[in-house]
Specification:
By secondary structure, the protein is of the alpha+beta class. About 30% of the residues lie in helices and about 25% in strands. It has 13 helices and 25 strands. It has a twelve-stranded antiparallel beta sheet. Strand 2 and strand 3 form a beta hairpin. Helix 2 runs parallel beside helix 4 and helix 4 packs parallel to helix 8.
Length: about 550
């Protein structure tokens, strides 16, 4: 463990979480980020606005235009957005997607809008009910905007609420939501579709909240979210499972050259991507991702790669019935999965991305696709178990399994195994058992073998597969990997949320013992509810109850 020998640690320094009011004072602190931000902003300010673009995307383009001084263009976009009648919008929660970015534009660039335009903008935002929303991101989008406007415009009421009520309810929600997210994880965890909404909402609060406690809460919330993202980024590819994605994997959403819209801007990895327009709030924000978190995305030395990254995210705010994420991250690829308690019960079953392999511009996964509304989701009819670079899967509905892959550059079959080379990053051994009744996958970095054939030879000579119980009512599969680990899974058809069948070297995997997050750069101290980040010669401790970040330095680091 990297977090040890605390008895030798000396000096303790409490870091202040004061946020600057302008970007100017930060320009000399993170010049590389600022250069990337300028490039992203320039790109989106010059992008031609298409009639087919939805209003919510146009607001982010207006933010880019304001930032580079294209005031007339920005005001035209804002007029187009705030003058539309949204009563018949096909998006039932359009208010959430408009209110937050409109409020950010108003707060950052209101001096360029003119009084009449600002008045109409505020009226538009306050015409939406701030306390609606069917999902986690809807509520945070709505309420973050409502809080800021209620704080800055105390004399202006909402359509159905007094400003005082909005302010009180919004503040109470944010205080509870921040603590719940920090201690129990996100329900919409690590979604390339939705994580930007969570981040942008907290950025709005971070940049403009007058109340210092809300500002600190936003800072800690942002740092904790990025702590879960950075260790799974592989030069722009997000090797992560998620409860919500509308595409076959989390690695290819919207940006054909990458995944999450802001990864290059956020971390500065080698592969450049402009992402999508929602990147703009991070680009113009006062917030900066701590160097300890950035380092976990782009400064992985040979001693730390490959590594295991684990997370826990709750279905409910009490922390009960969590998802347990497991990622094996190598230099150029990641294989990842989720233990979901053997049941996915809510609407996310149609949007669920349970496991996969990801590399630059490529992916491989299998899914049960029986949901007509979301044909790339997954269900509880198949279960997977991962240990390091090996994944086993079993299903009780093999006919529903669908295969997704991209950027396989070499492939051959031998002794019922399929051997694949994914891009320039990964070798994959895949065994399809009785037409997807079960499957075994073992992976390796291409750095480990001179050729795909050499990798295949190791699999054929060193591994051992037992499929004798695959036709049982509860199909069973066991495998001895090329590293000598014995890995076993049996389909578990109860709803206890306690693992009874997944074993490594004879021992049940105890998911309940996992902390909220753990990898070589960070861990969560469950006893004290503190997120701990490792730096060079120090650690940082985040405490959401005290709203503090404590820096502890000592000779051990």
């Amino acid at each position: 463990m990297l977090f040890r020998n605390f008895s030798k640690i000396g000096l303790v320094i409490i870091l202040s979480l004061v946020t600057t009011k302008t970007n100017a004072s930060l320009n000399n602190k993170q010049p590389n980020f600022n250069n990337r931000a300028k490039e992203v902003t320039s790109y989106w300010s010059a992008r031609k606005i298409q009639d087919s673009d939805t209003s919510q995307h146009k607001i982010y383009q207006a933010i880019a235009a304001y930032q580079v001084g294209k005031i007339n263009l920005a005001n035209e976009i804002i007029d187009d957005v705030i003058n539309l009648n949204y009563d018949n919008s096909s998006q039932s929660h359009i208010g959430a997607f408009l209110s937050m970015p409109l409020t950010y534009a108003y707060m950052r660039y209101g001096q360029s809008m003119g009084d009449q335009r600002k008045s109409v903008l505020i009226k538009k935002v306050k015409s939406f009910d701030p306390f609606t929303g069917a999902s986690e991101n809807h509520k945070l989008l709505n309420i973050s905007a409502a809080y800021i406007l209620a704080e800055y415009l105390p004399g202006s009421n909402w359509k159905n609420y007094s400003n005082e009520i909005v302010y009180q309810k919004a503040k109470e929600f944010l205080q509870k939501e921040g603590k719940d997210e920090f201690k129990n994880g996100l329900w919409e965890f690590d979604s390339s579709n939705y994580i930007a909404f969570h981040i942008n909402s907290w950025l709005l609060l971070h940049d403009f909240a007058k109340d210092t406690k809300i500002k600190k809460l936003a800072k800690i919330s942002l740092d904790s979210i990025f702590s879960g993202i950075a260790p799974e980024i592989i030069d722009g590819t997000w090797a992560a499972s998620t409860s919500r994605t509308y595409t076959p994997t989390n690695a290819n959403y919207r940006d054909i050259d990458g995944n999450i819209s802001f990864s290059w801007l956020a971390f500065g990895h080698n592969r450049k991507t402009m992402g999508e327009a929602r990147t703009m709030i991070l680009a113009v924000s006062n917030y900066r991702i701590p160097i300890e978190i950035v380092a976990s995305a782009v400064k992985r030395d040979k001693s730390s790669v490959p590594y295991v990254h684990r997370e826990k995210h709750s279905r409910v705010k009490s922390g009960a019935y969590p998802f347990y994420k497991y990622s094996w991250i190598d230099r150029k690829y990641g294989i990842y999965s989720t233990y979901d308690g053997n049941e996915v019960t809510d609407f996310t079953s149609g949007q669920y991305h349970k496991w996969g392999i990801a590399w630059n511009n490529g992916f491989f996964t299998l899914k049960d696709v029986n949901n007509a509304n979301y044909p790339t989701g997954d269900t509880a009819y198949n279960q997977v178990f991962q240990y390091k670079n090996v994944l086993l899967g079993v299903t009780i509905k093999p006919r529903e399994i669908k295969r997704y892959e991209k950027n396989i550059v070499e492939r051959f079959f031998e002794n019922e195994w399929e051997f694949m080379q994914g891009g320039d990053g990964v070798y994959i051994a895949f065994h399809n058992i009785k037409n997807y009744r079960g499957w075994v996958i073992e992976t390796a970095s291409q750095d480990q073998f001179p050729s795909l054939q050499e990798f295949a030879n190791r699999i054929l000579n060193k591994s051992k597969l037992n499929t004798s119980k695959i036709d049982n009512i509860a199909p069973n599969l066991s495998y001895i990997s090329t590293n000598g680990d014995s890995i076993e899974i049996t389909y578990q058809n109860d709803k206890t949320y306690i693992n009874k069948t997944q074993r490594v070297n004879g021992n049940l995997m105890n998911y309940q013992s996992w902390s909220l997050i753990e990898n070589p750069w960070m861990k969560f101290d469950e006893e004290n509810s503190e997120l701990i980040l490792k730096g060079e010669g120090y650690i940082k401790k985040y405490n959401i109850d005290k709203l503090t970040v404590t820096k502890v330095t000592g000779k051990d680091y």
